[in-house]
Amino acid sequence: MTLRVTNTLTGDTEEFEPADPDSVLLYYCGLTTSDPAHLGHARGWVHVDVMHRWLEWLGYDVRHVENFTDVNEKIVARVGENGESEADVARSYIRSIIDDMRSLNLRRAEVYPRVSESIPEIIDLVETLIEKGYAYEANGSVYFDVTSFDDYGKLSNQDPEQLDAQGDPDERSEKRNPADFALWKDGGVAPGTVADHQHDEAAPPEEAAETAQTWDSPWGEGRPGWHIECSAMSTTHLDDTIDIHVGGQDLVFPHHENEIAQSEAATGQTFAQYWLHVRLLDAADDEKMSSSLGNFETVDEAIEAYGPDAVRTFLLSTAYHNEAVYSRETMDEAVERWEGLQRGYERAVEACDSVDARTTIEDTDLREAVETSREDFAAAMNDDFNTRAALAALEELVSAVNTHVDSHDEYDYRGLREAVETLAEFAGNVFGLGLGDTGSGGDVTLAEDLVDLVLSVREQEREAGNYKRADDLRDELEALGVEVQDTDDGPEFRLNN
RNA sequence: GCCAAGGUGGCAGAGUCCGGCCGAACGCAGCGGCCUGCAGAGCCGCCUACCGCCGGUUCAAAUCCGGCCCUUGGCUCCA
């Protein structure tokens, strides 16, 4: 069974074959560090993370690079009135973005290159393009000549002539064709473009623009264009040809199209074999989750409200290239799904470790459920990373575990052990969910001891028939985030958050 | 206008590449039952689908072909 992926370049679902049969070169177009990351960004992250984890499960050595765009007009537009600079603003957002990535339990990339530290590579690449006749200098700026690259438009099926017809001929009259795009931009940032992106507490556009970074180049002082960075970073940190390039669907044109043009013109090699695009998250009110609108939920807020595992479950409950709607309702559903998985896992662990688990018992229904779940999960993931169907396979297994434990007094030890391992392997390692993370920290242990103490008091009240008092204690514990359940073997509890 | 992706039950969302196992998965919400002092969790059942519309191909179509309607992303800020 082999992995198949939907390739934007061909429009088809293709069998995945990396250039090197043992490793995968993966590049993900990261964020512009001008705002806190929102749930839409997290959708991309979590899906790329799970792709990474699945590729590893399949046995590949994954080399994963993700950039930070820390040089951009939008960052300049965030400069406040207290003397900070473009670089300061970028630094502060990079810090918050890294925090979000950690909270979401993302596997670390090999490198997180930043534009500001990639200027020499960018300049080299621009020089190569000029030498080879694909780019030209005009008044200190450098543009890519789209007519010089025959394959221009192959990713997004755009017709260069049509694009030229649409372009505004007055905007940057120094360009030869309206569809040409900047590789290097002369000078700093124009206050006008800063003003277009500014929020309330921003510094005056003129002052903000002065903090914009510039670098020396063969064409004078200036800044890199937007698209060139990914070409330079991908080639520098991975190779001329990479296996998988992932990004948001909104980047297909012009960003990815231009990356292909720059890289392939410069190297003469295919830039990326497989182009995967993550569809943008939709909000229930039909407003897209964009940094330019104020109605999105940040990753930080979402994690605060629902917890990282429920957020991951929400994002994985839709295949990466399909529509996904964010709303209170869909988030609540994800919380339930996640808790169901977690409870099922814990139940399997407890039954497995109980004295009633016997090696001599064999429940064929359970054993078959484990087999089916493993097969279905792998088949779903190999079918273009269908995380929704894979999640369903996990839930079928949880259901089988529950049925087994409910209907037997003595448990099938081996069957439960396989179920536990399957859940840990797939839900834990591949989906990156924090199963069984009851924590080993001292505070948690103390908290658990205290809850046990309260519950023993409650048991005495129950035995004495003081149910009102017992129920009050349970309610109060719940208000503190302790979920209490009475079972045949006495009370049990879970700590939420 | 051009390029691309979609329209499946109350909601959400698989299945469409390779037509039959799909009267349609998994789940959420709601309802009933079992269990339980109660609640919760879990289990069983229901709500629950003629798969945007029209036409065609076929023994057979959610799945293939044609036309139409609508939604979303892009068309040089955006994951």
Throw out a few tags for this protein.
497 residues; alpha/beta; Rossmann fold; Four Helix Bundle (Hemerythrin (Met), subunit A); 4-stranded parallel beta sheet; 4-stranded antiparallel beta sheet; 17 helices; 14% strand; elongated; RNA-binding
What does this structure look like?
With 497 residues, this protein is α/β, with parallel strands linked by helices. The protein has three domains: 19-278, HUPs (Rossmann fold); 327-430, Four Helix Bundle (Hemerythrin (Met), subunit A) (Up-down Bundle); 442-495, no CATH class. Helix content is 47%, strand content 14%. The strands form six sheets. The protein has a four-stranded parallel β-sheet, sandwiched between helices. It has a four-stranded antiparallel β-sheet with strand order 5-6-7-8, with helices on one face. Helix 9 links the parallel strand 9 and strand 10 (272-278). The radius of gyration is 27 Å and the shape is elongated. The model is unreliable at 286-294 and 438-442 (pLDDT under 50). The chain binds one RNA strand of 79 nucleotides through helix 1, helix 5, helix 6, strand 9 and helix 9.
